[in-house]
Amino acid sequence: MTANQAGKTHEYGPEVDKEFFNALQMVVEKYPDVARKYAVRSRHLELETLGIDFTKQHGVSRVEDNRIVTEFVDNGDLTIAGSHHACCEWYYDGRWHCIFQCRE
């Protein structure tokens, strides 16, 4: 998919990152029951539009009516850490990091 915002073109998705998605396809085909629990999505909005630095911040999502609302907070924010949230999105850079928490 190509997205255009403020004159910038950002390319992402299976047509652009073919090798990456081909490797993911093999994993999904090998573990179809587990794969149904997950999805792959672009982090364009968080990284490019909002400028979120996932080494310093993480998202906390909640359901409000018919919407999912996500707020980004600094890592170690005690008001969030004390609440009951489960990790619902991970990032891998040599080890797995929780970057989104969701209320259960």
Write up this protein:
With 104 residues, the chain is α+β, with helices and mostly antiparallel strands. The chain folds into two domains: 1-42, no CATH class; 45-104, no CATH class. It contains four helices and six strands; from the N terminus they run ββαααββαββ. It has helices at residues 18-30, 32-35, 44-49, 78-81; strands at residues 2-5, 8-11, 57-64, 67-74, 85-92, 96-103. A four-stranded mixed β-sheet has the order 4-3-6-5, with no helix packed on it. The protein has a two-stranded antiparallel ribbon with strand order 1-2.
Biggest pleated-sheet summary: 4 strands, mixed
What is the overall silhouette? Answer: globular
Query: Could you tell me the mean pLDDT?
Result: 83
**Portion in beta strands:** 35-45%
Radius of gyration: 16 Å
> Helix and strand succession?
EEHHHEEHEE
* Number of spatially distinct domains: 2
State the strand order across the main sheet: 4-3-6-5
Question: Can you summarize this structure?
Answer:
With 104 residues, the protein is an alpha+beta fold. It has helices spanning 18-30, 32-35, 44-49, 78-81, and strands spanning 2-5, 8-11, 57-64, 67-74, 85-92, 96-103. The two termini are 31 Å apart.
